[in-house]
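Sample A.
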Amino acid sequence: MTRFLLVLLLIIPAACENAAADRPGTQLAARVNGTGISAHQVRAGAPGGAEQALEKVIDRELLVQKALAAKLDRDPQVVTSIENARRQLLAHAYLERAASAASGSTRDEVRAFYAENPALFAERRVYRLRELLVSAPNEMIDVLRAEAAKARDLEEVAAWLRLRNAKYSAGGLTQPAEQLPLSFLPQLARMRAGEIAVFATPLGASVIQLVHAEDAPLTEQQAAPLIEQFLAGRRRLEAAAAEVKRLREAATIEYVGEFKRSN
């Protein structure tokens, strides 16, 4: 159902694409019930090899044709979903353009980031961990930390959670430092095998037991591409946030009805 709804959201763009595909001089890749599919649609429509991408675009076109025949493009719910998706795409495109002007990282910025984050680079480790992802309110986190501090094994923490009917999932993972949350690293870097730590997360807590850690340092030269990518992403987020703030400050925004705010 989710995939079908996603297809419905593409009805209007797909119709425009097909009109363009039928223009003289357009390089066609296929025709579906007489409707042309351009080579451009194939290249832009799906990842993977050209043949696989073409088949996915054909599948989409078949579904879109059926949806249009059933007049689903006139269904109020579908119309609302299409308009919301269109506006979301436009907003995203504008932010992408606004953020693309952000300048690249300097060598000094890369060097400073490398020095400020030894756990990611100079003292980088690959961690093998056992983890409990716990759904818990904030007030339970300190109690969970106290219980984890007494436990000798993660299973003892899991048993404690079961007694309290707390929701959790258990798993294991092996990941380098840069693939773990940055806020976890200072404590993880100090832990020894077998030790347990509790980290707050947006949905509750992550209870982690360190199984093994192996040193895998990166030199500044090796780390530079990763740092530049991270700094570029951070700069783009900052530029996007600044642009939204500027637009809000310049706009006239009035809250009405149930959303009206008191001064």
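Sample B, a different protein:
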Amino acid sequence: MEPTASTTAENAARTLPLLVVRQIEHAIVICSPLHVYRTRWFFRRLYATHGIQTTFAPPRVVPTPSAVIWELGALTVRSRQLRAAEEELERGQRQQ
């Protein structure tokens, strides 16, 4: 988990450079079972472009009703969040 990230997309974008600099080729992402669908969508798109394979390991927990509502609402902004994460990564590469 990246402490400055406020979204899953930011978490993926901000941890990616940390893995790249350490030449890590495989990451295990742990998140709730309900969140794994959106997490997989972000991490696989961002990490794969740098050759980092991802595996997802959700613990066995029952989702709460509020978590279901949150995830459904978050689906509506995931494309925008992915674009913002990609732009953040591009800015970081230009600054290097």
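Observation for Sample B: The two ends are 23 Å apart (CA to CA).
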